[in-house]
Amino acid sequence: MDKLLTLTALRRVIQLTAFVFFVYGAMIFTTFYTGDKLTQSLPALSCAYDMKGGDFCSLIPLQHQMDHRVSSIFTQGEKVLPALMGTLITLGTVAVLILILNKAFCGWLCPLGFFQDVFTMIGTKLGLTQLGSLSREAVNKIRPIKWFIFLFLVLILPLLTGIGFLGHEWGNPYCSICPSRIMTTAMGGDMSQIYISQASWGYFALSLIADLMFGLMVALALFVRQPFCRICPMLPMQTLFKKIGLLRLVKNGDSHCDSCGNCVKACPMDIYEIQDSTEHKNITHADCTLCGRCVEFCPHDGVMNLKYGPVTLLTSSKESFKKRIKIDKWWKE
Q1: 5-9, 175-179, 213-217: which range is least confident on average?
Q2: Which helix (H) or strand (E) holds 254?
Q3: What HEC string does the chain produce?
Q4: DSSP 115
Q5: Bridge partner residues of 311 (DSSP)
Q6: What is the pLDDT of residues 260-278, one digit of tens each?
Q7: Taking 80 as the threshold, does the pLDDT of residue 36 lie above it?
Q8: In angstroms, how far apart are the furthest CA atoms of the chain?
Q9: Pair 85, 94: CB distance under 8 Å
Q10: DSSP assignment, residue 283?
Q11: Rounded distance, CA 311 to CA 328, Å?
Q12: φ, ψ for residue 251 (rounded to 5)?
């Protein structure tokens, strides 16, 4: 029983509960969630194409607002504030949610994040060789991709579509390739989102990328931790507001941190910056999902801390580290 009393075990239970809610919520709570979603601006990847879902992510309204409302500033001479009002409401909702849970929406609630975790657990149990941490050089090359996707697929291309420079297929290009669209609909028994469109070269390219990206994500997740999360445009969105989040990772490092590196080995996003020595500093990185594994696997008393406002929720210790290592070996056997 002690083997189940870990932060990771608690996170798995919450991830599973959130998965059921966000993928099947409308089906469970028919009278409310079918007609309306919870926020329509969730800072995690839950798809509006899934009609049974309890909520959908903030990237969907942002693309539509760029296409249909913000573009009207240029095409119809619309006043700026009315044209931006929908976007401001979406960003305001995201800011409130980030204030409450910060980037834990990724590590604890995102259905697609949990889906990848499950495949990584399957790969481990099948005995597939796990890749472990990516090199710092590889991580640095991958990181800009999520910003490119956020700026171009979520903001710029939908805006250019609304202005009239691009065809209708580029009005919501990120949704067209998002693995969450295929995953959440398939989990509800709807396989219609797995297709190759021949409507135009744009639709063909987007549908082909979507299918390839989903298949690649599933294959990589068997031996690489969080493969799609590393390029997810939700991370830049969350980063805009992470400073106001009450939940955060705080480090009070010492000289041991220079040679330890356990926190980086435990981190599913390979954030090398968390091993740097620092005192009483919020080290919630743009790529951090606040999963808490770096706290669990830190062998030094009081160095890594998961805090909510002034309250310390979890702190690292030698005893907890020894127990956690034993549990990790038991799980991998």
Answers
A1: 5-9
A2: none
A3: CHHHCCHHHHHHHHHHHHHHHHHHHHHHCHHHHCCCCCCCCECCCCCCCCCCCCCCECHHHHHHHHHHHHCHHHHCCCCHHHHHHHHHHHHHHHHHHHHHHCCHHHHHHCHHHHHHHHHHHHHHHCCCCCCCCCCHHHHHHHHHHHHHHHHHHHHHHHHHHHHCCCCHHHCCHHHHHCHHHHHHHHHCCCCCCCCCCCCCHHHHHHHHHHHHHHHHHHHHHCCCCCCCHHHCCHHHHHHCCHHHCCEEEEECCCHHHHCCCHHHHHCCCCCHHHHCCCCCEECCCCCCCCCCHHHHCCCCCCCEEEEECCEEEEECCHHHHHHHHHHHHHHHC
A4: H
A5: 308
A6: 889 999 999 999 999 887 7
A7: no
A8: 65
A9: no
A10: -
A11: 28
A12: -120, 140
Contact assessment for residue 52 and residue 23, using Cβ atoms and an 8 Å cutoff: yes
The residue behind tokens 């929406």 is 105
Question: Residues near 263 by Cβ (< 8 Å), separated by ≥ 6?
Answer: 274, 275, 294, 297, 298, 304
